[in-house]
Predict the 3D structure of the following.
Amino acid sequence: MNSSTSSFNSEGKAVLLTLLILSMGDLALRWAEVNLSIDVRHIRSFPEITRKLSHEPAPRVVFLGNSLTRHGVDPSVWASVMKELKAPAGSVAKLVPDDTTMPDWYYVALNSFIRPGNRPDVVILGFTLNQLTDERIEAGRLGAYFCDLGNVSELFAKDLEGFAPKVDFLMGRLCRLYGVREQIQARFGDKIIPGYQASVRHLNEIRRRESPPKKHQTAGGKVHSYQLLDRALALWRAQGIEVVLVAMPIPSGYEIDQAVVLKAQSVGARLIDARELPALTREDFPDGYHMGPKAAKIYTRFVAERMAETLRENARWVGVTASAN
Amino acid sequence: MLFNSYIFWAFFALVLLLYRWLPHRGQNWMLLVASYIFYGAWDWRFLSLVLFSTCMDYLLAIQIGKQRDARLRKLLLGISCCTSLGLLGFFKYFNFFAHELTDLLAAIGLEFMGPTMDIVLPVGISFYTFQTMSYTIDVYRGRAQPVTNPLDFALYVAFFPQLVAGPIERSTALIPQITSPRTVRASDFSEGLWLILWGLFKKVVIADNMATIVNGLFNEDPHVLTGPECWVAVYAFALQIYGDFSGYSAIARGVARWMGFHLTSNFLFPYFSATPSEFWSRWHISLSSWLRDYLYIPLGGNRSGALKTCRNLLLTMLLGGLWHGAAWGFLAWGLVHGLLLVGYRLGEGRLWSRHGTPAASSLGLWRLPLALILFHLVCVSWLFFRAHGIGQAGTMLVKMFTDFQGSTLALFGISSIVFFGLPIMLLEFWLFLRNDDLLPARQHWTLRSLVYSHFAFMLLTFAPSQHHEFIYFQF
């Protein structure tokens, strides 16, 4: 064996060992993440949650959203309000992965209850700011958690434009270290870099302030794309699911894009405006963003009161309620 | 098509596959087509500029080589240089000078609307223009033979690994590698792999993470920043620009190495330099040596007394600053470096030898404090380079020395710099002491795989979600 061949062999060994080390790291992360992250545990349980819900009494209500909905919806308050107002209490489940927006919610719904055939009767989608837009598609995270290879044709054809997001998706699917890198960075940063969260927020705030409006936005930044919301509303309605959009409260306040109002109207979806509930104060948001327990009770009651009549008057569930009672 | 994009690596995989398959002439044809595709991916319209430069300098160099009449040779060289600099001047400096002229006339009470145009800067124009200029000048000086095969010359101008951000290759170094068949040895593969991973790590993990801090702080109102935050901004930018540019150069070398080409090393651990002249023999080596050979020495270099040497140093660095772009900040950056070179030159012979790059081991214990002092002086120059204007740079500079109020953001910035920058700086310090940037590629394969694993792990998990272009593309 000459020196050239041996050198190629040694490089081959170095590359193989590198791949082996990375694969072991990836496997370790996949094994450990369920224990390390409540959010991952929650995401992994979506099929089980919707399967269980499909065997529960109707009306079966899914609260879809992110951590705002997780903190803001109190199922026990929901049940007691329904009882109070003589509406069918039915069953409630929450699908609320952290830091997610419309693109994630669309595929969560598709893969958790549409494709497995465990569709609920009502989907209540909680949002704030511009979370219903298509603007934040994290292809790697979609690959890691919310999509599978069965979604590839739809994703590649409609949602992931260009070469890079498609590879991002496949990388996220293949390598968990890559797919959840933002979560790893945040967790790592929190542990070892002082003032990480506050400083990242500060820098992002400067960036937002200074960056010019995107091409598809007007100077006021008002024109957004809602293709995934459109597809979600059409799909859910086609499946006979009652769709409710809820504009949730946050201390900073925000405008609801008129386009969202029109879209909801056009498919007969209800839009509940819960942005400013009189009983809520800034102190009800302990971290400045998420609702505390008291706020959750107020918010859930507000939504439940507005939903009670719909649930009571819908003929599909009246009989079910009577038999359940 | 960026080196840190997936599309580039898909493109390069295809190029490499074809390259292995083809004979030498076929390789050159394929590389030329690939280079034009690579460049055209940014804006195919500017390919015409590359083609124009190629045709013009190819024909003029042949004529320069043929002519025996000294005046005609000089005229032909003049045409080549004026056309190259004219193109550069138009695309890079026209708006700046038109705007400054309008302002100047307004200041003396004359109303004048200078012609301004919405000129897009063609990517890499400064690099390939300087490369073709060095070729015609070398042919004129008799240091290089004119290339007779237009394909070879076209590939010399457009070779994609170094087309848009260097290294600025001399014809004497690159053309022989184009005209002769190349062999890819096993060591080329391992050294190329090391260079690519090292470069990607420096760009994606270090420079892009530093960019988040740098962009945030430099976009903030400087009056709102504290002194330590200004220091963080400057340190982070020093790390960002080094990671960004040296990362690009390392990837370019690695990519070329996998095809059997040996490109010039553009960076040799510049932040460990003890003197400004050493810094410039380690930072953007292909540009600094270009400026030395085609500007500083023709101006007289250090042959005509101390005063003229200082003038030549200042002029060279001012023009070096202007090469980066039409802005007062770049000129100020060049001026600071010119003054540093002059200042240190006056101290030469006392603390360090007058000629050559000091070896890592030379200067003994003096190296550490000297390197620290120089690093901070270089950082001050970066402030002018990065700031949005002289006013912002001035305000931040004053804050750096008068405001000592700590802040969470400053602590975050310093911790981030240490987290991302310290490991690579320690690794580079080891390479600096051994004076060999390819040393890791020759270590035992287990050690190599540990280093590669670290790089790959950091690339997978600490790549920021926002991709940043290479800084030097704008030059």
User: Anything to note?
Assistant: Chain B touches chain A through 39 residues (CB under 8 Å). Chain B has a mean pLDDT of 90.
